[in-house]
Amino acid sequence: MVKAIYPGSFDPLTNGHLDIIKRSIEIFDDFTVSVLNNPSKKNLFTLSERVKMIKNTIKLEGLEDRVNVDSFEGLLVHYASRKAAKVIVRGLRAMTDFEYEFQFALMNKNLDKKLETIFLTTSEPYSFISSSLVVEVYRLGGNVADKVPQPVFECMQKTI
Ligand code: ADP
Questions:
Q1: R_g of the chain computed on alpha carbons
Q2: I need a surface site. Which of 58, 89, 128, 151 has the fewest CB within 10 A?
Q3: So which residues are the catalytic ones?
Q4: What pTM was estimated for this model as a whole?
Q5: Angle, nearest 10°, between helix axes 47-60 and 150-159?
């Protein structure tokens, strides 16, 4: 029984994140998407908005029995240990992600030897999608309806 956590800001969830979620549930027995509540980071959407958008998307995809949605504060290793999770899932788009993700994974390994980080490489259609770029393009009037799940797009229309 392998329990995994997919942590992130998800500000907001994109189709790239959703792809990682769908592929992860084919690998892990118990899977939780967990939104980081970091009060020192300026997020566009509030924690509850980010959680709600993910929950609505998971429901729309009919995955509510296979994906848990949660949030956490503080150190990821402490949260993972509380949840008795063995694996952290992260996504990799390009070499630019690698340096940060590599350092993050090594720090977590240093803090908790039992916790493994597993990387899933992005699927090609999502390789250029990031939350911040999607928001920027939307703000400038570009079409992002095909880059985020529908509940996220609706929330963006109301918020931005
Ligand atoms: P962070 O946790 O650094 O704030 P995000 O919330 O944006 O990052 O993303 C969470 C995780 O999902 C990160 O590992 C990130 O690299 C990954 N990710 C983001 N967008 C994509 C994408 N389009 N394809 C694959 N992985 C992605």
A1: 15
A2: 128
A3: 17, 41, 93, 131
A4: 0.97
A5: 150
CA-angle at 67, arms to 45 and 124, nearest 5°: 75
**In angstroms, how far is CA 55 from the centroid of its own chain?**
12
> 6, 72, 122, 123: which to mutate for ligand 1, most atoms within 8 A of CB?
122
Mean pLDDT score across all residues of the chain = 97
Give pLDDT tens digits for 55-73.
Answer: 999 999 999 999 999 999 9
Name the phi and psi angles at 158, rounded to 5: -75, -35
Residue 144: DSSP 8-state? -
d(CA 117, CA 144): 30
Distance in angstroms (rounded) separating the CA atoms of residues 31 and 107: 22
Residues having CB within 6 Å of any atom of ligand 1: 8-10, 14, 16-17, 20, 90-91, 93, 97, 122, 126, 129-131
Nearest to 96 by CA among 123, 127, 120: 127
SS3 142: coil
- Which tokens hold the place of 19? 């792809």
